[in-house]
Design brief:
310 residues; six-stranded parallel β-barrel; seven-stranded parallel β-sheet; 23 strands; alpha/beta
């Protein structure tokens, strides 16, 4: 090879080496530039407040869940309060406390008489009179001499002349009967003079009803209310229900919460059905077949004619 050829070959080799070296530098530069990854640049390119943290990211979730929770609580809370709240206050006046008079379905100061096949469920009593004022019952004096029994009475029969403690017990019961009468008569009236004393065909809500006259029930009357609601009827004259007519209880109303305070006589017509406690200052008469669901508490006499009282 001549000298010129050798020089050219060396120059070519040198150029090749320079090219390789330049390529290596470029690669190294690229690597250095590529080492700035998202991980390494994230802290410097984003502030801590800009990066959602677990707390921040939970916040929307908490907010979202809080809103539905508040909405849901409104409904269920209201329902729970309604369910757990005390029973609704009874409509009408407070009940009349009968005291120990409430232990008797029939209680009289002047006597109790019956004809026909009467059926009494509960105890009956008379005071201050003796057992001789209880007629038509075929009384059988118990060996304790404190009460009698009768085939017409599912219960006991008491009189003021029986052995102690019956006399004192009856005295208290009669006093309680009179106190209850006065209590019922003294209640403030909600309605006065309804129907001019004729309440047949009416439906009456709980309350205190007052008349300065007598009261008649020529057709059915309905007392509509709940099981704890109370009715008090204050009657200055007489009370009468016609034959085969009824005092109807509706909506859960109970006879024990109905009180008829009557200054004059009370008469339940033949085959009528009456509900409530009759607190009468004079006498109470049940005509043939009349049914009384409640009590007859009279400050004079009670007369029965093949009736049912319970």
């Amino acid at each position: 090879m001549n000298r010129k050829a050798i020089v050219l070959t060396r120059l070519a080799a040198l150029v090749l080496l320079i090219g390789i070296a330049a390529a290596g530098c470029a690669t190294s530069g690229a690597s250095a530039s590529g080492s700035t990854s998202p991980t390494s640049t994230a802290p410097s390119s984003q502030s801590a407040s800009a990066i959602p943290t677990p707390i921040d990211s939970a916040a929307p979730s908490a907010t979202d869940s809080a809103a539905p929770s508040a909405t849901v609580m409104t409904g269920p809370t209201s329902t729970a309060e309604a369910t757990n709240a005390p029973a609704p206050t009874a409509a009408g006046p407070a009940s009349v406390d009968l005291g120990t008079a409430g232990n008797y379905v029939l209680l009289s100061k002047a006597g109790i008489s019956t004809t026909g096949t009467t059926k009494i469920i509960g105890d009956i009593g008379v005071s201050p009179i003796a057992a001789s004022a209880i007629t038509g019952f075929g009384l059988v004096l118990d060996k304790s001499r404190t009460f009698s029994t009768s085939t017409l009475v599912t219960g006991r029969v008491y009189a003021a002349n029986y052995a102690a403690p019956t006399p004192s017990v009856l005295t208290t019961a009669v006093e309680d009967m009179q106190t209850a009468y006065t209590n019922a008569a003294g209640r403030a009236a909600d309605v006065t003079g309804l129907g001019a004393g004729n309440i047949g065909g009416l439906t009456l809500a709980p309350g205190v009803y007052k008349w300065g006259t007598g009261v008649t029930i020529p057709t059915n009357v309905t007392l509509s209310g709940g099981k704890n609601d109370v009715w008090i009827f204050q009657i200055a004259g007489t009370l009468s229900i016609s034959s085969a007519k009824q005092v109807i209880l509706e909506g859960g109303a109970q006879a024990k919460n109905v009180f008829w305070q009557v200054a004059g006589a009370t008469t339940l017509g033949t085959n009528s059905t009456f509900n409530g406690t009759i607190l009468d200052k004079t006498n109470i008469a049940l005509r043939t077949g009349a049914v009384l669901n409640g009590r007859a508490l009279a400050q004079t006499a009670i007369t029965l004619e093949a009736n049912r009282v319970n």
